[in-house]
DNA sequence: ATGTGC
C-alpha cells in the first residue's frame, strides 16, 4: 500500500469515515500516493478533499462533477456603492436557460453541442454558488497587485461545474467498466479522457456564462482573474515517470493563485501556492469542507434558526436561496472553519495568504418553477 | 453532484 498523507493539524475535524475512504482508495491497484487535505470529508465511496497519484485512470475518483471549480472575476463596481438588496432583486431567472444566442456563444467558446446545451450558464445545486465579495484584508500586496486586483472593487466568485454533462460522462464509463482503474492507453480510457477533457472545457465555459449572466443582470463590467478546476484527472511527469493525478475536491497548487472559499458566513482566502508542493501531490484544499452530511443540517439547526434567519449571515452578507433544505444544508454551521483549514496549509508550507475576501451577496437558487406556490407540473402522457 | 422520481 502506498504512502497515505494527511495534511491536517490535530485541531482540524476529520471524520473517521473520510479517513477510511482515504485508506481504502489508496489501496486500489496501481495507486502510488494518496493525500488528504484539511477539508477532507466523506464522499460517495471515495473521499472529497483528496488527491491520488496512480498508474491507472480512475474515473470514479474524479466523480460526476468533472471540471467543477472556482472562477474569480474583478468587477468595476466600487465596493462602497453596492446595494445588496437592490442587486438581489435584479438576480432572477438564472436557473433556466440563458436567453442570449446560446448556439453562437457556444461555438465561440469552441464547445461541441451536447444534450446539455441548455444547462450552460446555470449554477446548479449542492454547494455551488455565485458570490459577490469585497476585499477584506490584503496580506501580500505585491502578489495582489500582480493579479491586477483592486481592493476597492467588488469581486465575483463562481463555484460550479459540468452539470448533467459530467454526470453522463461518468455514468457511461461506469456502466461498461465499473469502478476499476483503466489502463491509460486502452480504448475505454481514451474515450473517457476525451469526454472528460470536453467536460473540463464545458465547465470552464459554464462558469464564464454564469458570470456573464450575473454581471449583465447587475449592469457590471468585469474581467476574469482566475478559473481553476478541482475535480479532474491529468497525466503528470512524476520524477520522470508518466502517472495520473486525480483531484477530487482538491485545488491545484501548480496553476497560480487560487481562492479557497469558506462558507457564505465566513471569509474566503485568496492564496499563493508554494513552489514545491509534491508532498501534497501539488494540491491544496478546495474549500472549508463539510462537517455535517447533507440532509443533517436541518435537524440540527431548525430549532434555533428559521429559514429567514439563514438569509443573513454573521458577516452581514445576504443569501439568495429559496430552497429551504438547501438553505440549511449549506448553512455556515455545516462546514468546518476555513480559517483552520487554510492555517493547516500555511503551517505545512504549502501556500501563503494573499488576501481575505468577505461575502456580500451569495446566490444559491431561486425557487424552481414547479415548486412555486400555485404552479403545477403539466401532466404527461395525456392530451 | 444530477433534467434527482412517481
UniProtKB/TrEMBL annotation:
SUPFAM superfamilies: Hypothetical protein PH1602 (SSF103365). The active site is at 286 (gmp-histidine intermediate). PANTHER family: RNA-SPLICING LIGASE RTCB HOMOLOG. The lineage of its organism: Bacteria, Pseudomonadati, Pseudomonadota, Gammaproteobacteria, Chromatiales. GO terms for molecular function: GTP binding; metal ion binding; RNA ligase (ATP) activity; RNA ligase (GTP) activity. Keywords: GTP-binding, Ligase, Manganese, Metal-binding, Nucleotide-binding, RNA repair. Mn(2+) 1 binds at residues 65, 128. Mn(2+) 2 binds at residues 159, 230. InterPro entries: RtcB, RtcB-like_sf, RtcB2. Coiled coil: none annotated. Its EC number is 6.5.1.8. GMP binds at residues 127-131, 230-231, 268, 286-289. It catalyses: a 3'-end 3'-phospho-ribonucleotide-RNA + a 5'-end dephospho-ribonucleoside-RNA + GTP = a ribonucleotidyl-ribonucleotide-RNA + GMP + diphosphate. This is 3'-phosphate/5'-hydroxy nucleic acid ligase. One of its GO terms (biological process) is RNA processing. It comes from Lamprobacter modestohalophilus. It comes from the Bacteria. Binds 2 manganese ions per subunit. Its cofactor is Mn(2+).
Amino acid at each position: 500500500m502506498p504512502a497515505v498523507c494527511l495534511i491536517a493539524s490535530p485541531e482540524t475535524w476529520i471524520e473517521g469515515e473520510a479517513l477510511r475512504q482515504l485508506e481504502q482508495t489508496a489501496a486500489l491497484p496501481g495507486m502510488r500516493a494518496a493525500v488528504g487535505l484539511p477539508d477532507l470529508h466523506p464522499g460517495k465511496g471515495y473521499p472529497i478533499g483528496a488527491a491520488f497519484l496512480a498508474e491507472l485512470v480512475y474515473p470514479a475518483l474524479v466523480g460526476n462533477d468533472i471540471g467543477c471549480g472556482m472562477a474569480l472575476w474583478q468587477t468595476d463596481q466600487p465596493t462602497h456603492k453596492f446595494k445588496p438588496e437592490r442587486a438581489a432583486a435584479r438576480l432572477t431567472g438564472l436557473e433556466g436557460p440563458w436567453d442570449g444566442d446560446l448556439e453562437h456563444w457556444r461555438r465561440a467558446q469552441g464547445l461541441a453541442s451536447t444534450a446539455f446545451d441548455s444547462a450552460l450558464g446555470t449554477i446548479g445545486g449542492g454547494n455551488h454558488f455565485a458570490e459577490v465579495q469585497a476585499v477584506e484584508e490584503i496580506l501580500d500586496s505585491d502578489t495582489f497587485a500582480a493579479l491586477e486586483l483592486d481592493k476597492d472593487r467588488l469581486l465575483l466568485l463562481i463555484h460550479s461545474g459540468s452539470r448533467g454533462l459530467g454526470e453522463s460522462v461518468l455514468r457511461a464509463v461506469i456502466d461498461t467498466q465499473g469502478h476499476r482503474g483503466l489502463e491509460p492507453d486502452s480504448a475505454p480510457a481514451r474515450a473517457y479522457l476525451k469526454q472528460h477533457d470536453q467536460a473540463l472545457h464545458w465547465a470552464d465555459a459554464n462558469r464564464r456564462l454564469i458570470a456573464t449572466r450575473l454581471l449583465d443582470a447587475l449592469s457590471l463590467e468585469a474581467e476574469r482573474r482566475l478559473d481553476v478546476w478541482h475535480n479532474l484527472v491529468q497525466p503528470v511527469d512524476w520524477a520522470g515517470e508518466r502517472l495520473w493525478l486525480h483531484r477530487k475536491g482538491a485545488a491545484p497548487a501548480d496553476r497560480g493563485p487560487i481562492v479557497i472559499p469558506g462558507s457564505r458566513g465566513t471569509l474566503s482566502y485568496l492564496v499563493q501556492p508554494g513552489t514545491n508542493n509534491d508532498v501534497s501531490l501539488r494540491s491544496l484544499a478546495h474549500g472549508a469542507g463539510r462537517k455535517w452530511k447533507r440532509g443533517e443540517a436541518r435537524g440540527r439547526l431548525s430549532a434555533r434558526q428559521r429559514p429567514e434567519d439563514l438569509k443573513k449571515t454573521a458577516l452581514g452578507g445576504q443569501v439568495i436561496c429559496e430552497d429551504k433544505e438547501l438553505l440549511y444544508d449549506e448553512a455556515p454551521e455545516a462546514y468546518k472553519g476555513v480559517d483552520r483549514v487554510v492555517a493547516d496549509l500555511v503551517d505545512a508550507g504549502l501556500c501563503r495568504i494573499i488576501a481575505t475576501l468577505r461575502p456580500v451577496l451569495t446566490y444559491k437558487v431561486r425557487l424552481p418553477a414547479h415548486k412555486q406556490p400555485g404552479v403545477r407540473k403539466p401532466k404527461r402522457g395525456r392530451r
